[in-house]
Amino acid sequence: MPGSGVSINALPKVSLHDHLDGGLRPATIIELAEAIDLDLPADTENDLADWFTAQATSGSLVDYLKTFDLTVAVMQTHDSLARVAREFVEDLALDGVIYGEIRWAPEQHLTAGLSLDQAVDAVQEGIEAGIDRVAQAGLVIKIGQVITAMRHADRSLEVAELAVRHRDLGVVGFDIAGAEQGFPAADHTEAFDFLARNLFPVTVHAGEADGLDSIRGALFDGRALRLGHGVRLAEDIEIGREDQDNTYVTLGPLAQWVRDREIPLELSPSSNLQTGAIAAWGDDMLDHPFDLLYQLGFRVTVNTDNRLMSGTSLSRELALLTDAFGYDLDDLEALQLNAASSAFLPLEEREELADAIVDGFANA
């Protein structure tokens, strides 16, 4: 732990990349599944949690994504969406998160008759209920929705219009997600053009299951302000040895562009290991290029991606990085300030968030 007696859980944190359908409580899945007669692969909370983690640890993003068939299945009604969103907020607050962005794809939650707008309203209702419950417990949290379009589908313009329609009703950004390879950002040019015309913030999943071309597409076709994962940007960094005692690092043009413009990387260490996103470097947390990117001055942020599938929390991800790379409180504070600076919030609110982080760490 970074400093004697300091609890990472108690430190103020910012969560930017956390999927709603990847953060359900196992107990909630069991209850919701029973209500719709959905068979589950396990009957108890612990066994179900273990099943998700085991299934997600496949080394393949495509196989990892299959676990969502089950969680999405129990999130098809107003009440189920509101409940999952409420519990999601409560769990973030208990983990010390003071600002969180919840991303999810409304187009995947319409089989019981909800419209896109009704689905978004249901999640927002749950978010607000969660914020109220958190406040009753003496905690403070702010939440924004990031509306996601599925990159293999053809509804991205419709979903972009949905996001903009709800921009003053809890939605703060737009994302595309799903199977990355073979589905470039360029396939969604019409949606990204619409978002750009409406000055609406965009993050794009890129550099997870595909490489530099995907990242390039996210930046230039998607006009992404942040990169969802982006871990494979490290493929554009060359590390060489001058002699026995000295090494050198050379940034390729794409890496140079991302670093110099401080484009945030939404890194998710445990998830990146599970999906094989860092297979080029190894299969252990020590092999993750997180520290390389951090030491080179990239705006790296720490995220959970899917807390259920990875059996994790933001505090746990920070602890894993601390154990692997020897980070201290100053490092953890820098990472949270990176996230605060990258939030899809107005400048004044980002500054207030940064002040809250500085105060929280100073009093740790």
TrEMBL record:
It holds the Pfam family A_deaminase. Gene3D superfamilies: Metal-dependent hydrolases. Keywords: Hydrolase, Metal-binding, Nucleotide metabolism, Zinc. Its cofactor is Zn(2+). It comes from the Bacteria. One of its GO terms (molecular function) is metal ion binding. InterPro entries: A_deaminase_dom (IPR001365), Ado/ade_deaminase (IPR006330), Metal_Hydrolase (IPR032466). Residues 12-358 form the Adenosine deaminase domain. Signal peptide: none annotated. Its EC number is 3.5.4.4. SUPFAM superfamilies: Metallo-dependent hydrolases. One of its GO terms (cellular component) is cytosol. GO terms for biological process: adenosine catabolic process; hypoxanthine salvage; inosine biosynthetic process; nucleotide metabolic process. PANTHER family: ADENOSINE DEAMINASE (PTHR11409:SF43). Belongs to the metallo-dependent hydrolases superfamily. Adenosine and AMP deaminases family. This is adenosine deaminase. It comes from Cryobacterium arcticum.
